[in-house]
């Protein structure tokens, strides 16, 4: 019997190496192919090598993990897909009963072991509908509350009422040095984009989450968090006042931070009545 084959699609080399090492310990008989560093190369590698399972980062250059999964669904023999991401998106418990899994970074050995057990069970009893069922479930959760015609991954309008309060984040997992901290969203003063990360500005300092602001926005309650700049989302409860600088720019004074949050002209109308 041939060894099962896996592909890791991850644009962060250190994270890819860590996952490869953990897989070697958790699934010794697994043959892991060279890492695909972006979504485009992942699609090509999967079509060429036809792996049994793909550990797929959602946020990658070239093509997103969702794009890769959709490409896999068109294959005659689609692989098992395990999504790996740094952010807790929506109702992850929906995937506990699914054919594949959804791992949060940093990946924990015990959690990976459960994922491996689930994948091995599915490989033993192939089901051609597994991937299509996953994509349907994933799309339902990612697009929940989005109006008809809205593109995948696009933020919902900021005045859209929530369809289910449980869809919005209650906390974030953020990194500081070698720790992962659980931060209630009410303790966040603002979020600010920083390359491939988002800075989580709290009363105790700044933390990092590895996601884009665009991915984060639909997960935030629009009645509590307002986008005020292309790269900034502020907790409205933290805003004391909106003030104009001598140069005519609008900035926000916050209750528990000394930072002045800049407001772009596009969002200035939100504070005209404050």
Describe the structure.
This protein has 274 residues and is of the alpha/beta class. It has 2 domains: 5-124, Rossmann fold; 171-271, OB fold (Dihydrolipoamide Acetyltransferase, E2P) (Beta Barrel). Helix content is 24%, strand content 28%. It is built from 6 helices and 15 strands. It has helices at 13-26, 39-49, 65-73, 109-124, 130-142, 213-216, and strands at residues 5-9, 31-32, 53-57, 80-85, 101-104, 171-176, 179-184, 188-194, 197-202, 205-209, 225-229, 232-235, 239-244, 250-254, 260-263. The strands form 4 sheets. It has a 5-stranded parallel sheet with strand order 2-1-3-4-5, with helices on both faces. Strands 10-9-8-12-11 form a 5-stranded antiparallel sheet, with no helix packed on it. The chain has a 3-stranded antiparallel sheet with strand order 13-14-15, with no helix packed on it. Strand 9 (197-202) and strand 10 form a beta hairpin. Helix 2 (39-49) runs parallel beside helix 3 (65-73). The protein is elongated and about 70 Å long. The chain starts with a strand and ends in an 11-residue tail after the last strand. The model is unreliable at 89-99 and 144-166 (pLDDT under 50). Keywords: Phosphoprotein. It comes from Pandoraea horticolens.
Annotate the secondary structure layout.
Layout: E1 5-9, H1 13-26, E2 31-32, H2 39-49, E3 53-57, H3 65-73, E4 80-85, E5 101-104, H4 109-124, H5 130-142, E6 171-176, E7 179-184, E8 188-194, E9 197-202, E10 205-209, H6 213-216, E11 225-229, E12 232-235, E13 239-244, E14 250-254, E15 260-263
Parallel strand pairs: 1-2, 1-3, 3-4, 4-5
Antiparallel strand pairs: 6-7, 8-9, 8-12, 9-10, 11-12, 13-14, 14-15
Helix pairs in contact: 2-3
């Amino acid at each position: 019997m041939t060894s099962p084959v896996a592909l890791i699609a991850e644009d962060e080399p250190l994270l890819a190496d860590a996952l490869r090492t953990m897989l070697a310990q958790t699934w010794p008989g697994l043959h892991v192919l060279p890492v695909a560093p972006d979504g485009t190369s992942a699609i090509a590698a999967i079509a060429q090598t036809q792996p049994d399972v793909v550990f797929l980062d959602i946020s990658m250059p070239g093509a997103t993990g969702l794009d890769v999964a959709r490409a896999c669904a068109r294959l005659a023999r689609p692989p098992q897909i395990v999504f790996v991401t740094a952010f807790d998106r929506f109702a992850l418990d929906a995937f506990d009963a699914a054919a594949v899994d959804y791992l949060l970074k940093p990946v924990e050995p015990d959690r990976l072991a459960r994922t491996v057990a689930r994948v091995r069970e599915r490989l033993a009893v192939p089901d051609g509908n597994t991937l299509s069922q996953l994509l349907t479930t994933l799309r339902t959760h990612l697009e929940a509350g989005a109006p008809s015609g809205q593109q995948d991954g696009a933020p919902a309008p900021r005045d859209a009422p929530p369809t289910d309060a449980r869809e919005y984040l209650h906390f974030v997992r953020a990194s500081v040095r070698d720790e992962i901290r659980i931060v209630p969203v009410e303790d966040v003063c603002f979020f600010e984009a920083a390359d491939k990360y988002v800075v989580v500005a709290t009363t105790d300092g700044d933390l990092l989450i590895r996601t884009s602001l665009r991915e984060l926005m639909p997960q935030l309650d629009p009645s509590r968090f307002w986008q005020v700049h292309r790269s900034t989302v502020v907790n409205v409860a933290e805003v004391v006042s909106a003030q104009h600088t001598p140069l005519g720019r609008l900035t926000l004074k916050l209750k528990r931070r000394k930072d002045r949050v800049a407001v772009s002209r596009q969002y200035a109308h939100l504070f005209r009545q404050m």
